[in-house]
């Protein structure tokens, strides 16, 4: 997939250094459930087992000029169809991750995915701003003891129905965790 400035593609062999830079970055991964990667060897394993594996969709976000990953967009393979994303700090503030997510959403809509969800830690409001720019709607918030980091987190859950069903709200987190609705 392409946009004006980006190539959005599957991760591939040869992306190990970029994976190490992205998923080893402590600040970028502060709001991910996993711990940052600790070595290039872990990056190689993560690339092969997760990013190139069969657990959902994992796209490398690359600038057209060098086709090197500077971020990622993921879509969960379960019933949440959870949208996730991250971008190296030096590329933030340029609208790149919103641009990449919009393109991925277009493709998912063509494929017939009925809806997407996305959650963000209340301490990471910039992620919520991306969700809003994509046209996602805030549905509710919930408290979770996040694993494997074992920290309490309040998440805001957003949703986008791609099939026109305006009344659908993904309720799995609502039913599983203490929840509430905020005035946002």
Automatic annotation (TrEMBL):
It comes from the Bacteria. GO terms for molecular function: acyltransferase activity, transferring groups other than amino-acyl groups. SUPFAM superfamilies: Acyl-CoA N-acyltransferases (Nat). It holds the Pfam family Acetyltransf_3. Residues 6-165 form the N-acetyltransferase domain. InterPro entries: Acyl_CoA_acyltransferase, GNAT_dom, N-acetyltransferase. This is GNAT family N-acetyltransferase. The lineage of its organism: Bacteria, Bacillati, Bacillota, Clostridia, Lachnospirales.
